[in-house]
Write a structure and sequence with these properties.
This protein has 168 residues and is an all-beta fold. The chain contains no helices and twelve strands.
Length: 168
Amino acid sequence: MVGRSTDGEYWIIKNPDRAGECWLWGYYASVVGSTAGLPIYTPPPTPTPTFTATPTITTTPDYNWTGSWTTSFGVPSEMHETVMFTLTQTGSAVSGSFNFGPDIVSLSGTLSADKRTLTGTWTSLPSSGPFTFYLVSMNQFSGNRDGGTYEWCGYRSGAGLPSPCMGP
């Protein structure tokens, strides 16, 4: 032991790891022997904390629909069809197509401002109808087609189908 604080609350000891002293709170110390001859140490000034501003995130995630998707669609609570399609996003426009039996189904749509919602039209001549997809994560969407009559959801990168499938 090297000394004690002016208020008697701390003991000053040699730093066991390097040169200098350490201040040890007396609550955690068991003193053995006389301390009457120890020098009195004045506590060093309390450091003034410096303020560091917390950064504000001003960007939105980069939602990107481009890629291969495994999808499921059909009437809720009934058998679903599973199809794979590839979408291509260029700015706010998204397009793609897939084979459904002997037919080719084309998708064409536009993204919302935050790029999470894709609304558009599916076309398989002579039929067509509206669809709406909503990204529930970077690799999953829930959605519907034909004004909400059929659910249509999908996934990529091994994410798995979202539950519930019907959305938004």
